[in-house]
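Service request form, structural biology core

Requester: graduate student, group of Dr. S.
Request type: structure prediction, single chain
Budget code: on file
Notes: please return the result as structure tokens.

Sequence provided:
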Amino acid sequence: MRDVAVKAKAKLGKLPGDDLYNELIHESDLDRKIGLLKTHYSFLEDTNSKKDVEFKLFKNFYQELKSLDFFLEGIESEFFKEYFAIYEIYLIQEVIQCIMNNTLEKNILNLRENPFSKDLNIEIDMSLEEFIDGLKDSKYYRTLLPFINKNMDRESLIFLSSNALMKFYFRDLLKLAKKFKAKERVLIEDFIGELINLSNFEMLYRLKKFFELNDSEIFNYLIEGGKGYNAKRLKELSNLPIDEFLDYLNESKYKDIFDNAWYSHIRVNRKKMKLFKDEIVKERSTVLYVISAMSIIDTNIDNMISMLEVDESFTLSERYELVIVR
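Core staff response, request fulfilled:
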């Protein structure tokens, strides 16, 4: 195991155990829950609000990413950075949503405090065109440029620009994967392909269940490059009524993910967690090991924040359901 993987493994070893999870799940008072987190995370010592806890946990995660990237070189470092550039995309999506919903002034401090915002110009009164123009020197500019003059309603623009960014993200990862040597390239392509599958299935489910779209429109929103799902198979799935689509998934390893709309996103993330844990156990690729370790740590943050958000209105079983398997 290389030094960088050893360091990633050490970071995993610092994750809280089941005792802390159980205490958080059984506690309803926010102040006491924050107190429990302070016993495990020393950098939360002077923190007293959910917002500040979330910010400091994510800031620490960002610093951990930087510390690992320091030990990566060449294509491994490039791929590692690109994989976690998803947080830049999430931030860009959030800024666009704020601009279109006229809530930028209300959220601008939170947006600017995000550690991934250092290359973004975010001003209180900026228009969508001004924001996208500010990305002219970034890799996202050409993807977002067509949306400046799009004559479409607010919700459509938010959805379509977000979809375009996700397509760009996965396309870029697959392009970088081809730069690895043959054996590792296959492992990385399969890893990314599985993430694409989960993204596509979630998109298919949501579009078929909550929107009235024709099959060709649905297909256009899907991402090519999934493991075992080429364009032909994606088109076939797009043409299925939702009941037949769910029957198809229930005959595969993806069964039961969408049997409850409320928890479907959590169950998708549990599938991702299994993917990450498999890479940790198998240790077949250093860059996938490090990425998986940091993804597990990020999932732990999601779990912590979920536990802060629940109160006495949630039953114990509902609280446990919100925790993504560790």
